[in-house]
Design brief:
Length: 380
Amino acid sequence: MGASELRGCAPHQQLFDPFSMGRLALQNRLAVAPMTRVSATTYGCATADMQAYYKAFAEGGFGLVITEGIYTDKAYSQGYLYQPGLSDGVQRDAWAPLVHAVHAGGALIVAQLMHAGALSQGNPYRSETRGPSVVRPKGQQMHFYRGNGPYRLPQAMTEEDILDAIRGFADAAARAREAGFDGVEIHGANGYLLDQFLSEGSNLREDRYGGDLERRLHLVCEVAGAVRNAVGDDFTVGVRISQAKVNDFEHRWRGGEADAAAIFGTLGRLPVDYLHTTEFEAWKSAFGSGPSLAALAKRHAGLPVIANGSLHDAGRAAALLDGGEADLVSLGRGALTHADWPRRLRAGEPTGEFDPAILSPIADLANAACRRAARGPRPG
């Protein structure tokens, strides 16, 4: 049975409609969400295990694969030990066979570029952390990424540090294109560096990068411009955005929908091709009542939107598309449970519940493989 026939008889057919986003001609509306797997080499190079991991999503029917966060420079960007990088030519060349394998499996692949800032808990290049201001991040380091105890107190970034970070994003984007990626996604979500600059609690600066909302958005705007200049006009660039953070799950924008309008309006004027919103439950109101975060992005940015957050329920995922709240959906836990989630949905096969043991004690590929071997094959 050909792809068009499968699409015609699939439940929630709208999830299998093609879509164009920037220069990406996607076979369906299903993407793999970025998920940190801390499985690169000590020096940040992608491995054969990572290649097999990403290729499985392509062969399983996802139209788009977005990588885990990739660090961008050999200064302060790395967040976790064994995180992959795009900070030099060796790391770039290690990605090339992985990109080729995903393409051979039938999917497109976007590199998510990430600077951890004050949330860095494992960086062999620097012994200290830097963020917008001298503010210790809330919460505790994540043990399943080899962290322990409170986050370190960061030093405030100098103007030179900020310029270096911007240059790191741009150079990493250029290397991503050289490695064969189909696009890059700028990680502006989840409490990492660009989100730290956006947030009042972590950004106490009094220069042009701090103060009111417009100034707190300067860094992400400058990064987007630098990335676009580095990759040219014919390469897809996106931005990921969220309210909640990995260290502050309850965080919400203080100004509610007014802040959302200002943030998404600004992002919509940048030289980028899409936005990727993430919430714990993407279909729910962003502020207790009213539209979802994805819907607000669609309304105010005028760009294609990928929605992320507990959308492994196909009915909820399809409803977001039907309601015009998003153009694509990205799956994290659903993809980890079944790398062939799209194929299963098209075939009417059952899907299992996410097993949190995949991420414990360490959220790496070796642990996941051991857990699967211990459980044995699953029916269906």
